[in-house]
Automatic annotation (TrEMBL):
<dbReference type="GO" id="GO:0043386">
    <property type="term" value="P:mycotoxin biosynthetic process"/>
</dbReference>
<protein>
    <recommendedName>
        <fullName>Tat pathway signal sequence</fullName>
    </recommendedName>
</protein>
<dbReference type="Pfam" id="PF11807">
    <property type="entry name" value="UstYa"/>
</dbReference>
<keyword id="KW-1133">Transmembrane helix</keyword>
<feature type="transmembrane region" description="Helical">
    <location>
        <begin position="43"/>
        <end position="68"/>
    </location>
</feature>
<comment type="similarity">
    <text>Belongs to the ustYa family.</text>
</comment>
<keyword id="KW-0472">Membrane</keyword>
<keyword id="KW-0812">Transmembrane</keyword>
<dbReference type="InterPro" id="IPR021765">
    <property type="entry name" value="UstYa-like"/>
</dbReference>
């Protein structure tokens, strides 16, 4: 019995071993075929195409990189500022400028009320009239189609004010309203001072809050260092004469000056509101 069992087992084992060996050989042959494929024209073409695509992507990226480096001013202004006709017509550029932060050395903009200081502020464009925004720029400039329009026979478009010059107008009104200037301008009764005291106060507080919001919106993230003053007995003092990267204000001002709407426009210069246009029941 043992010999028969041994014989059968040995036979079964041999058959299994032989079958597994054949299977292993077959699998090994198949595996080796996969591992060492024969190069073909198709695979070479695919590799060449992929390499060409990578080179093309690199060249296009380099080209765009150089273009953006050349127009960083435009890219920056488009990112942080509302689009407007001014941006398109003037072209915003930046340059380093040092602020005059002197405490005791006054310049013409800081003088007490009088003709010289008024002329200096006037030269900044604080009282310029509106400009025209073409219809094709209106939506991109944040203007709705039902806002006030210029009559088509006078060129069409939208009347608008350059906002930065309005900020300066507000700052000028705050200067005129300082306690040591107020009586002078109130007595002259010009500009905002032609209104009664109730409206004048609201105008001043409106300007104060506009300047607040603008300063918060464009918060300066620079720092003010300190310097030593008084050699005999040194003490620290904040240095307000700092450098800033500023827009080309003079170019914007000149454009706004050159593109002012007529000082005395005809009575039908503005197009009457159309049916469905929003008309507010009070000042927004």
């Amino acid at each position: 019995m043992d010999s028969i069992f041994d014989k059968n087992c040995h036979g079964d084992y041999s058959r299994r071993e032989s079958g597994e060996g054949l299977l292993a050989e077959e699998e090994g042959t198949l595996w080796n075929r996969k591992e060492t494929p024969t190069p073909t024209c198709n695979s070479f073409a695919v590799c060449l195409f992929q390499l060409s695509a990578l080179v093309l992507v690199f060249l296009v990226g380099t080209l765009f990189g150089f273009h953006w480096r050349g127009d960083l001013d435009g890219l920056c202004s488009r990112h942080v500022s509302q689009y407007s006709t001014v941006m398109k017509e003037v072209g915003i550029q930046y340059s380093l400028q040092e602020f005059n932060g002197s405490l005791l050395k006054e310049n013409v903009f800081r003088q007490d009320a009088g003709p010289d200081v008024d002329a200096a502020w006037e030269s900044l464009g604080v009282n310029y009239r509106s400009i025209r925004v073409p219809p094709e720029d209106a939506e991109k400039s944040g203007l709705a189609n039902d806002q006030v329009k210029i009559n088509a026979k006078y060129g069409g478009g939208f009347p608008a004010n350059v906002e930065g010059l309005h900020h300066l107008h507000c700052l000028n009104l705050l200067r005129q309203s300082l306690y040591y200037n107020y009586d002078y301008y109130h007595a002259k009764g010009e500009g905002p001072f032609t209104n009664n005291d109730y409206i004048l106060r609201r105008h001043v507080s409106h300007c104060l809050d506009i300047v607040r919001q603008e300063l918060m919106c464009t918060v300066d993230s620079g720092v003010l260092g300190q310097v030593w003053i008084y050699p005999e007995n040194p003490e620290p003092y904040v240095d307000f004469n700092t450098q800033h990267r500023c827009k080309n204000f003079d170019a914007v001002r000149r454009w706004a000056e050159d593109n002012q709407l007529p000082q005395d426009p005809p009575s039908d210069f503005l197009q009457p509101p159309s049916e469905g246009d929003r008309i507010y029941i009070q000042m927004p």
